[in-house]
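Q: Hi! First time doing this. I have a protein sequence and I read that you can turn it into a structure. Is that right? Here it is:
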Amino acid sequence: MSDVEKRAVHRLNNGEWVLEKDIVASERPLSIDLKNEEGLFRWVSILRTPGADKELVTGLLVSEGVLKGCTISEIEITLSDDMATVLLPQGGGFDITPRGRIRNGSACGICGRQDFSDLLARVHECSIRGIEIESTLLLELPEKMLEVQSAFTSTGGIHAAGLFTSGGENLVVREDIGRHNCVDKVVGAGIYLDIQFPNTILCLSGRIGSELVLKAIAAEIPAIVAIGAASSMAVDLARQAGIALYGFTRNNSTVSYLLPQDDSVGE
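A: Yes, that's right. Below is the predicted 3D structure, encoded as structure tokens:
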């Protein structure tokens, strides 16, 4: 399944409507089931851009902390059209209570949860050590990611996330209609590529919401660089977790949210 599709549109040019075909980002539902010795259970249905679905499910399992009594390396994920089934090993369990059996869109990775306490608890439990990034390298990352954003180049309407080394090497980039899906895809890809997350930088094509910081915490990624702004909760979570956070990284400028600690500066 392609990550882009064609649709007939009317475009207004020089005061005249012209019929033509446009390329748009593909968006389709994906239902995810969990299967163990006790049976088959529907976990969640999400909206995503088709492609890298196995990586998406893997990253989502990590960020949500669903698996109990087993690890990512012990599961098997099977795909069929817009369905994914996670096969757990003998004795493997899961906890889907916080999210419940709901349907999620592609706008937010944690909206609709019944409880946030399990995710927020990770902030206090983690021991991430932020990494230093040279200013020149920091400013180059979004452009490096843009160079391989083929779907965005075609549509202008799709998000991206990428993992880079502290030296600026592009390890993996994924695109999706959902910002959080991009991060899940790169985390999943990183697991299959055996990438050491504590030595990486997460680059984002949009804003930094709290759900993206929580995903970075779950994967133990020490730094986030984004083109857009950070929310208040994202800043606070990153500071508590020790993640180096940079926003508005464009036009040869950036904003560091790690320091100062005193938010009264400039009031």
